[in-house]
């Protein structure tokens, strides 16, 4: 097998790089846009700093795709609709919802991509993927701001917990669509996990990490 | 005179750095946000690249303020309302309006800041201001995309010309407010220009450049 476009790169790796690249580009766009909602200049600058880090990750992934002889736009194309739909259906209505999206949503996505990355054979690609998945500081920032807000007004914890659940629901919906449409990516994950018990363990790990993030925020998962 | 907060920096220079810093931060935010409107992934990435450059400028200005012993947030604070109001009243409704805003609006602001910078005594500050005002590539990009669109559909030229006029109107409104409230900055510009004839020449230069930009777009100014 010659790989995608005769490059020797298998389709699942192209998909992983493509979804990550478009994911970083949209994460950049949305974080930067959510910076509008920031209550202070310092908060705005903090969110903008994280957005700029996501953009740097996007350029690294795009350059890596090009170096492998692949067309970055073609690699990203299949993931435009699911990622845009995820963001369109989870547009934060205030600053705290934006922070929770950055922490809970990106946390879930990051955990998932990290699991997939473990099955990627090419070492350069695996190294880059793990690098772009490293936390850009948004976790600590989001946790401290959300906890402060809930301490000030405990009544808002219910609304924010519901928001987090909606985020997870929309993310799963789009993930399912991708799984159905992108056979190679699904096969990599299922094949890599070994069997159904392996998939079940993977889901348990994702759920446990999500619960830990919700607890860090002081929210019921 | 000890300058602002005993730093030896005169109030007009602090104001210039403050308005530029907040201007870059909001430009970043709006460009990144307008990237949502991009028709292709390549256009989206191009706008995101410019936004990231604006963000780098913001951090340079912020660091320069801090190096001078000034509080960046305090320096930016007087310009939050006028800049936010400008952006809120000129939210582009489509991709082309966003491009015209990036080209015509930023072009006008850049010309103006460059005029002010000429009167700044501190060489480091003047050098940094001229550096952050350098074009990040958005001019060529905007011109080629807008011209293509008008070639495809000449009927839209009228609407886009009106949009550009509205941008200028809103920018002048906010500039007037700033002039009234920030005596030191106004004094620097008026004093530097010499007299009313100097101010008139400055306005002529700004108008000429604006007309040239509109012509480059193929629009009536």
Describe this structure in words.
The structure is a homodimer of 221-residue chains. By secondary structure, chain A is an all-alpha fold. Chain A has one domain: Up-down Bundle (Ferritin). Helices cover 78% and strands 0% of the residues of chain A. Chain A has ten helices and no strands. In chain A, helix 9 crosses helix 10. The first copy, chain A, starts with 10 loop residues before the first helix and ends with a helix. The interface between A and B is medium-sized, with 27 and 27 residues.
Salient structural properties:
homodimer, 221 residues, mainly alpha, Ferritin, 10 helices, globular
Itemize the secondary structure elements and their pairings.
Two copies of one chain form a homodimer.
Chain A: H1 11-34, H2 41-67, H3 72-76, H4 80-89, H5 95-117, H6 123-132, H7 138-152, H8 156-181, H9 183-193, H10 196-217
Helix pairs in contact in A: 1-2, 1-4, 1-5, 1-9, 2-6, 4-8, 5-7, 5-8, 5-10, 9-10
Please report the total strand number of chain A as a whole number.
0
Question: What radius of gyration of chain A results from the CA coordinates?
Answer: 18 Å
Number of self-contained structural domains of chain A: 1
The share of residues in extended strands of chain A comes to: under 5%
Low-confidence regions of chain A: none
Measured as a percent range, the helix fraction of chain A is over 70%
Name the CATH architecture of chain A. Up-down Bundle
The CATH superfamily of chain A is known as Ferritin, core subunit, four-helix bundle
Order of helices and strands of chain A: HHHHHHHHHH
Q: Calculate the terminal CA-CA distance of chain A, rounded to whole Å.
A: 45 Å
- What is the SS-derived class of chain A? mainly alpha
């Amino acid at each position: 097998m010659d790989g995608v476009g005769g490059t020797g790169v298998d389709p699942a790796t192209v998909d992983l790089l493509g979804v990550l690249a478009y994911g970083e580009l949209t994460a950049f766009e949305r974080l930067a846009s959510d910076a509008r909602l920031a209550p202070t200049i310092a908060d705005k600058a903090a969110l903008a700093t994280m957005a700029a880090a996501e953009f740097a990750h996007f350029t690294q992934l795009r350059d890596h795709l090009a170096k492998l002889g692949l067309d970055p736009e073609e690699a990203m194309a299949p993931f435009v609709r699911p990622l845009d739909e995820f963001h369109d259906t989870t547009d934060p209505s205030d600053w705290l919802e934006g922070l929770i999206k950055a922490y809970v949503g990106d946390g879930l996505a990051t955990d998932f991509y990290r699991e997939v990355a473990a099955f990627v054979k090419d070492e350069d690609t695996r190294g880059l993927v793990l690098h772009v998945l490293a936390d850009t500081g948004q976790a600590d920032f989001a946790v401290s701001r959300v906890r402060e807000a809930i301490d000030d007004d405990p009544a808002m914890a219910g609304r924010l917990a519901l928001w987090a659940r909606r985020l997870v629901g929309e993310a799963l919906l789009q993930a399912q669509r991708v799984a159905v449409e992108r056979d190679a990516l699904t096969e990599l994950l299922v094949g890599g996990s070994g069997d159904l018990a392996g998939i079940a363990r993977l889901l348990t790990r994702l759920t446990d990490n999500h619960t830990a993030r919700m607890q860090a925020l002081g929210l019921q998962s």
